[in-house]
Amino acid sequence: MAHGIRVDLSDLSTVQAASAAVSRLVERGEIGNLDAVVLNAGVMLADRRRLSAQGYELTFAVNVLAQHALLRGLQGPLSPRGHVIVLGSSTHRGKRATLGLVPNPVWQPPAVLSQPERGPLPSRRDSREQGGVAYASSRLALITLAHEWADRFASLGRRLNVYDPGFVVGTGLVRDRRPHEDWVWRRVMPVMSVIPGVTTPSRTARHLVALALGETSPDLHDGYVEMGRVSDAEPVTFDSARRQALWDWCEQTVDEAGTRRAS
After folding, report:
1. What is the DSSP letter of 9?
2. Does the pLDDT of residue 121 top 70, yes or no?
3. Among residues 88, 106, 57, which one has the least CA distance to residue 253?
């Protein structure tokens, strides 16, 4: 039997409530411990001006902070040999890996990355550039954070890997753009799926499910898998100072959200 739990990743209070709901289902014996967890949701916006419920830039809030909060909340119901998959993206490698369609990521301290753009409204082109940078930077940050999670899981016998679905065409990824751009992405771009590195939702999903269930790479831990092929994340994602700073900031921010929710 499937159990649906509503969650709004733009609001940490609902993320924490959803995690608590999963824990209650396990405690009551309605479901077993979680053998596999796939953190798949994310957003790519046309600008950096929208806010999460807690006042953080929406792209970073959903793609990084909510993922950390959700994984933290699911540690309890996760089985002793549980496997977590975090969704990565080739955008963390820079625009060369995205056919030039997404700008290079920019690393900044999380307190800066999480702040929205302010000041005079930029041109439409500059606004889209900011949105692309925010998305690529959030993916770079999430993969960096995943290494830190993997280190903590290793001592518990659990596994965590990053799955890069590839350049997936025909999805709703650019629905925040102008209507004709969204139409081209959904209706025209799928013909590009024959190009190496470009794929479709159904094709890449099969690789993701096989990895999550341990049907492929059953012993892999802290790995990076691109469309079914074991690869390597960019070396910069292993930077210890970045990892620690990002971990500390996310922990503090999630704790503060929990305190406000309880009060």
Report:
1. T
2. no
3. 57
